[in-house]
Amino acid sequence: MRAVARPFRRLRRHLVVIAGLGTLAYLLLPNVIVTVFSFNKPAGRFNYEWREFSTDAWTHPCDVAGLCGSLSLSLWIALWATLGATLLGTLAAFALARHRFRGRGAASGLFFLPMAMPEVVMAASMATLFLNTGVAFGFWTILIAHITFCLSFVVTAVKARVASMDPRLEQAAQDLYATPFQTFLRVTLPIAAPGIAAGALLSFALSFDDFVITNFNAGSTVTFPMYVWGAAQRGTPVQINVVGTAMFAVAVLCVLAGQLAGRRKNRRRGSRRS
Amino acid sequence: MTTAAPAPAPVRETAPARSRSARRVPYRLLLPGILWLLLFFVAPLVYQASTSVQTGSLEDGFRVTWHFATYWDALSTYWPQFLRSIGYAAVATALCLLLGYPLAYLIAFRAGRWRTLLMVLVIAPFFTSFLIRTLAWKTILSDGGPVVGALDSLHVLGLTDALGVTEGHRLLATPLAVVCGLTYNFLPFMILPLYTSLERIDGRLHEAAGDLYAGPLTTFRRVTFPLSMPGVVAGTLLTFIPAAGDYINAELLGSPDQKMIGNVVQSQFLRVLDYPTAAALSFLLMAVILGMVTVYLRRAGTEDVV
Question: CA-to-CA distance for A204 and B159, rounded, in angstroms?
Fold first, then answer.
């Protein structure tokens, strides 16, 4: 039995690795293309076919009308949407994870529902509200819409972290005569912080990259994804690829730096313990 | 993301009877968030429900006339787009599972010290705008590009043409391109929950299965896969729901023949300005998806994941 199984096992081990790496290649191929084509000098208005190497777009990232403005607007909206969603979501997550009260199930379901709905439904319904109440589309409608869909993700992230936290830690703090406020600040908040940070990061990424909900609620305001969408119709400047490549590089570097810092911290902690 | 938090351990009360203000704490914490959702999530749905039974024109305004026929008209006009959305989303979800499982398995059990790097590489594409990445597929699949050339010389395109998923010697503007884009865009939503549930599996279970003379395939079928079911269910939902409502891939990679229901809602709302039809279509889409999800969860037997 085992003798027959061994070559199979070896084959399977390699099959899984090959298939997994194949999937990874599928996931990363578009990023490679985006990077390569950020050095292109396209013949026409569209940057879909390779012509010749050039660093023009990298040295003049803001030479295309409207691109850098839309980029900074997107960053600005993402910042405020993150703040709003993180604040509202963290409060709600604490209530849902730490307290038993009447209506908890219903409240939990309400916070979950926006994630279980196709984005286009939420986008159209919010735009219907703004149309019917006569609110002018623009910065504020985008911001409100972004906070609304980011909220659920923050609640989920923070709730998971707070629920897994040992309630005895807070009791210990109170037994040591910490006031409720001190307990919250010195014990509860530091433990919940990774969950809050995860929720905030997710909100920022979701808001910055959102197209569907913005498409319905922006009016004539142009965020970066809206700019790219317009460009797909009119002609894609190489600078779009520059922004995409730079975002990818910054994100990967940040994550790797965070990992390295965490590892070093752990090592120091480990040596102290020994 | 759909895994529910475990029930919180009851917090020991210092006072035997909870004071009134202590009982109010959760409501005070919830109030801002709930108010926000009532105003900007529930109220919009109510407005949309009302819009869907209105009649009128842009010039004269719309009035509620309880015109439920809008739903019937929308369904009888756009049923091909409905079916197409469900079909494309189902195929893309199946492909995501097929492609995502090996990668999640690789990261969970075989990656060793490369685990972190591989995880970063799975999440990293998120940080490049998905519109830019979807446009990159236009380059990859372009007519006369290397992919089309290779598939053509291998006569794969002839085969797919016969199956009706591509047309002639091109990939762009075919169902295959749209499904490929949907699969690509929602793949991380499949991989992450799969990885989370695989990573929790105790490696000793594999050893135990081996000790009991189970071959690798049997181990996978009887031990690993059943234990990863919560991840499979969460991943398929996180992939299927957004894929069924998506209109970006059909717009950028497809032709008018591949329009999905999201495209119809978008053009009815933003171009045709037929708000009642757009509202009715949104509700139909929501109902179809919620119905399918409920049936699916019942059959998968893991209601506790939501």
Answer: 44
